[in-house]
Amino acid sequence: MVAGKGGVGKTTVTATLARAATRAGQSVLIVEVEGKSGLAGAFDQPPLGYEETELAPGLRARTLTPDEALVDYLENAGLRRISRRLASSGALDVVSGAVPGMKDILVLGKVKQLEQAGAADLIIIDAPAAGHALTFLLSPQGLLDAVRVGPIRKQAEDVTAMLSDPDRCRVLLVTTPEETPVTEVAETAFYLEDRIGVALGPVVVNGVYPPSRVPVGIDAAGIQNEAALLDVFVSDREAADLARAADFRVERARVQATQVERLERMLPLPQIHLPFLFSGGVGTEELDELTSAFTEGVDTLAAA
Amino acid sequence: MIDDIIENRRIVITCGTGGVGKTTSAAALALEAARRGRNVAVVTIDPAKRLAGTLGLDELTNTPREIDRARWDPARRGTQQGRLSALMLDTKTTFDELVTANAEDPEQAQRILDNRFYRNISGALSGTQEYMATEKLYELHTDGGYDLVVVDTPPTRHALDFLDAPERLMQLLDNPIFRVLMAPTRAGLRIAGFAVQAFLRTVARVVGREVIEDVIAFLRAFEGMEEGFRSRAEGVRALLADPATAFVLVTSPRREAVAEAVFFADELEKHDHSVDALIVNRVHPLFGEANADGLRKRAMSIAEQATGDGSPRDSAAVRLSALYENLSDLSGLAAKERRQVAGAAERVRSGEVAYVPLLPHDVCDFDSLHEVCRRLFDHGHGDDVAADHDDATDAGFEAGGTTGGR
Fold first, then answer.
1. Cα dist from B386 to A208, B157, B360, whole Å
2. CA distance A277 to B211
3. What is the pLDDT of residues A89-124, one digit of tens each?
4. Which residues in chain B touch residue A287, judged by CB atoms under 8 angstroms apart?
5. Which of A151, A178, A214 has the CB atom closest to B362's CB atom?
6. pLDDT tens sequence for chain B (406 residues)
7. A40 contacts in B (CB within 8 Å)?
């Protein structure tokens, strides 16, 4: 399960993890719980649907939103004809609203089904960011408190067993090296372990600026000196731009390093760093680069 | 004009996906309006802890708390009569207050407040938070005595939820399921048809009879209150459609965020609203001209002069080519980001787009909020890299910034 607040690159990390796993010879199924993410776009494919699509050899993906899972459940209960009509009228919303966490249980129950059916060597859930993914994973417990008997309770029990078994399920938290995301990922981690009892994998730190050899604290005049040594002409304007850009880079690296250290102090979990990409988006090429970095990160941890 | 929005509108709603700096933008807009002399309230949904502390939102109170002027304008630079208050939306309490206000008597209100189904939906039903945000907006606008109410919307992936919230609640009340459940007679059940009966039986089997009973009890208790809710929903709808209400779209250059922003803009249009302004947060500043390729070639040709012998010439070549490479990376990125944002920028009929750059720190206190305001409201001035630079060399790419990611 890949979890993180909005904007940290959860979808990118999901795609990266999937790629790394397929490269290691595993079959992968990505399950998109919220619908409408850029995942398919990272593989140059049209948007995902409830049916599995192959994004790359050995890599399949599908959506599994609560509404879809509910309709699925009802259809299996023999209510095919009316289930979709009821879904659009909002009635299903009401019913699932009546039982807190029911929708989440249906999604997790379906995931459990896929796991037990051996749908893939690795199933990756792109977990909801709202509330830092907490409510989604808290649902089984909430339901066990609320519902005494019946098939839903059994579902909740089975799902809880799956979530709390570290050999079956791990949560990979994602953050960027910035203050608020780091604070929140640490809080989420403790909450997940304490309240839910789910095991955590390494923390993925996304968007780490690659090291640069720009000199620290150089100004336009200093740059002109360097240029003079090389008989290279640099206009005043360009020297100023180079200096400001260097300042920015150095400052950004410093801020990130501070936050990475802070993350280490707050959360004693191994970290995997993914580089910041200057391309402005994630397509196939970028995915390759990220996958290599991820695999390297995993190998380093495995060797340690 | 973004200035017009904060100076003259009565309501400003910030829309956008999660992680783009929406809450920070809402706070900055509210702060600037207060500095210009207005009595402002900002409604936040899920602010980051430090920002919440700054705004005085350490405890959950469902009424706005005024922030001491000495905190948000220590240098007393703003106009005399400005005031700033903040509130963190408490969905459940807002719903409870709404029920109490609409009930015929305290007993009816209590029956609902105690009802298990109600207690579950008042926190959990999707759309409830959005609906309560609009409800709070209505209340503050009508009774709060504020010149301006700035509302941060929930970081939902579904743009419609906020706009449609009143609609959806009404739809729910009109749902045939409810009609059936509320009709105490067999005749009512027969009319509903076998499909609905089968559905209800399945539901009872799956989640237990008490759930259905809870829903029925809720609906019985709710009887007579629909009218109140309906007219309130109508009032909210009218308020959202009022020309004194402005919609400010917030995004970052991230492709997904821009796609969401475009989607939001289209949905607003479908509801006969328009985007009054676009704020693009977390942009990389543009240093000089965007000439990534040319700069990279320079970097490479300079790198060729490196001899690897550690001499001054060698170090100079390494450093100078690194400097060019860095400038190439950053200017290429800045240009790409701007292109990516273009799709959203075109949707803004007023043409009002403000860019706020990445700042080297999170926006969590009034000093950094003021920095953001400076970027949002200083049009035509150059972009700067960090707080202390002020050279106006920018080629039309304005900057400000929030790294807060909210």
1. 19, 32, 7
2. 51
3. 666 666 666 676 777 888 888 999 999 999 999 999
4. none
5. A178
6. 789 999 999 999 999 888 899 999 999 999 999 999 999 999 998 888 888 899 988 776 788 999 999 999 988 888 889 999 999 988 888 889 988 988 888 998 998 899 887 887 776 666 677 888 888 999 999 999 999 999 998 776 555 567 777 676 666 666 666 666 655 544 544 445 566 666 667 767 766 777 777 777 877 787 778 788 888 888 888 998 899 999 999 999 988 889 889 988 888 888 888 899 999 999 999 998 878 999 999 999 999 998 888 899 999 999 999 999 999 999 999 999 999 998 889 888 888 899 999 988 889 999 999 999 999 997 533 344 333 333 333 333 334 333 333 3
7. none
Measure Cα distances from B42 to B7, B25, B52, B72, B199 in Å: 15, 11, 12, 14, 44
Give the tokens for residue B119: 């207690």
Long-range CB contacts for residues B289-293, cutoff 8 Å, separation at least 24: B289/B331, B289/B395, B290/B331, B290/B332, B290/B334, B290/B335, B290/B395, B291/B331, B292/B328, B292/B329, B292/B331, B292/B332, B292/B335, B293/B328, B293/B332
Indicate the residue of B302, B340, B389 with minimum beta-carbon distance to A244. B389
Interface-testing mutation among B256, B282, B289, with chain A (most A C-beta atoms within 10 A): B256
Distance from CA of B288 to the nearest CA of A (A): 6
Phi, psi values for residue A124, rounded to 5°: -110, 120
Q: Which ipTM was obtained for this model? A: 0.87
- Tokens linked to B114: 């105690």
Asked whether the beta carbons of residue A5 and residue B362 sit closer than 8 angstroms, the reply is no
Q: How many whole angstroms separate alpha carbon B337 and alpha carbon A181? A: 22
Cβ-Cβ contacts under 8 Å, A152 against chain B: 206-207
Chain B interface test: which of A76, A149, A241, A258 (most B C-beta within 10 Å) = A241
Interchain proximity A180–B385, CB inside 8 Å = no
Query: Residues B264, B249: contact at Cβ < 8 Å?
Result: yes
SS3 A284: helix
**d(CA B8, nearest CA chain A) in Å:** 32
> Do the chains contact at B48 and A95, CB–CB below 8 Å?
no
Residues contacting residue A299 through CB under 8 Å, at least 6 positions apart: none
Q: Does A150 touch chain B (CB under 8 A)?
A: yes
Give Cα A216 distance to the centre of its chain.
Answer: 34
Q: Which of B206, B267, B295 to mutate to test the interface with A (most CBs of A within 10 A)?
A: B206
The torsion defined by the Cα of B368, B374, B376 and B382, in degrees rounded to 10, comes to: -120
Residue A28: strand pairing partners: A59, A122
A114: Cβ contacts below 8 Å, ≥ 6 apart: A29, A31, A120, A123
pTM above 0.90, yes or no: no
